[in-house]
Write a structure and sequence with these properties.
- 43% of the residues lie in helices and 16% in strands.
- It is of the alpha/beta class and 360 residues long.
- The strands form three sheets. A seven-stranded mixed β-sheet has the order 1-3-2-4-5-6-12, with helices on both faces. Strands 8-7-9-10 form a four-stranded parallel β-sheet, with helices on both faces. It has a two-stranded antiparallel ribbon with strand order 11-13.
- It is elongated.
- The termini are far apart.
- It binds beta-D-glucopyranose (BGC).
- Beta-D-glucopyranose binds next to loops.
């Protein structure tokens, strides 16, 4: 191999390695209207990649260049990625935070440089420099999950009691409590009346929260619940906050024989319409998911960016729900949709969000 070729391939190798190591994927558009920094949490979940890809597409289509970074769920990595964006002098930063409590300092650095910041999907707490927030109605996500359980078990008419176990999302993600509170707004009355029984007795958010939304952690917790409380009882429903957690729960239940004709799967909720979960729904593993069209959310973020840069009024539809301990952050909320075996075709496939082969 000649020196030139060697250097070229070494360089290529180095680039590939650094892409893998940092989860960085710089991209660029024409940039005539400015440069937008996008800080995403990780590629571990399909949704964040879709969110990122759509946002880049929208922004570049509108004449912006983009600098998109994924942080592998590492808070220090995310902080330094945002610091780099500030040093580079980007015009707006869009952040889907890993830990909503950990970005106060870096957001205040952006504010010092007059760089507007949009919190994407997850609110950033204790930061005056958050200008806007775009997300789905997080409380409503939980309501859809809770209501699905109520309807599936027909709690209005059945006498019960039915056994349920509760799981929550990452404790450092502000959304996780909204999801849980929304679900409990529906489920709590049935728990109070005894129609739903949490045999483990674990109902406190801090007890049921799953760090990093990690499926393996959820699986381990479900294993423990099954061996401690269900050796001679059946689980009828599991409140799972998202698809990653739900898939861990499904594995655990399958491991002890659920999912057969004499021992059907309990009702298991989810969120995100990840392809693996939709497959599981089709094959009677997980029962439902909550679909949040990330394309729509990316569109909202891109529109906010454009309105900020052009000095236009930024369109929001909620100025009361999301307080980050410093202020009510002006928010644009989108509606989530419940999806199960009966409507996945129409909502996910016919709409083009997933392809039929994604879920085969
Ligand atoms: C998002 C969910 C996602 C979870 C884990 C939440 O903040 O709203 O869509 O499942 O994070 O990444």
């Amino acid at each position: 191999m000649g020196l030139k070729k060697f250097l070229a391939s070494a360089l290529l190798g180095a680039t590939v390695i650094s892409l893998g190591a940092c989860g960085t994927s710089d991209s660029s558009g024409s940039g005539e209207n400015g440069t937008i920094g996008i800080a995403m949490p990780s590629k571990a979940l399909e949704r964040w990649e879709k969110d990122g890809d759509y946002m880049v597409e929208q922004l570049e289509g509108n004449g912006y260049s983009t600098d998109i970074q994924y942080a592998q769920d590492s808070v220090p990595t995310q902080v330094s990625q945002i610091e780099n964006m500030i040093t580079k002098g980007v015009d707006v930063i869009v952040i889907a935070s890993i830990d909503g409590e950990a970005l106060t300092d870096v957001v205040s650095k952006a504010q010092d440089q007059d760089i507007p910041v949009i919190a994407y999907d997850r609110l950033i707490m204790n930061a005056d420099g958050i200008d806007y927030y775009c997300t789905f109605d997080n409380f409503q996500v939980g309501v859809l999950q809770g209501q699905y359980i109520v309807d599936s078990l027909d709690l209005e008419n059945e006498v019960g009691p039915f056994n349920i176990e509760l799981f929550g999302g990452a404790p450092d993600d502000n959304n996780a409590r909204f999801f849980f509170d929304g679900a409990m707004s529906i489920l709590q009355p049935y728990i109070d009346s005894g129609k739903l029984v949490v045999k483990s007795g674990q109902t406190d958010f801090n007890k049921i929260a799953i760090k990093n939304w990690d499926g393996a952690t959820a699986q381990a917790r479900m294993d423990n619940l099954l061996s401690a409380s269900y050796t001679d009882a059946t689980v009828d429903a599991v409140l799972a906050p998202n698809d990653a957690v739900a898939m861990g729960i499904v594995s655990s239940l399958k491991g002890v024989g659920y999912g057969s004709s004499d021992r059907p799967m309990p009702i298991i909720t989810g969120q995100d319409a990840e392809a693996a979960s939709v497959k599981s729904i089709i094959s009677d593993g997980q029962t439902m998911t909550v679909f949040k069209n990330t394309q729509e959310l990316a569109d909202v973020a891109a529109r906010m960016v454009d309105q900020i840069i052009k000095g236009e009024e930024v369109e929001v539809n909620d100025t009361e729900t999301y307080n980050n301990n410093v202020k009510n952050v002006p928010t644009y909320l989108l509606e989530p949709v419940a999806v199960d075996k009966d409507n996945y075709q129409e909502i996910l496939i016919d709409s083009g969000y997933l392809t039929a082969s994604d879920v085969e």
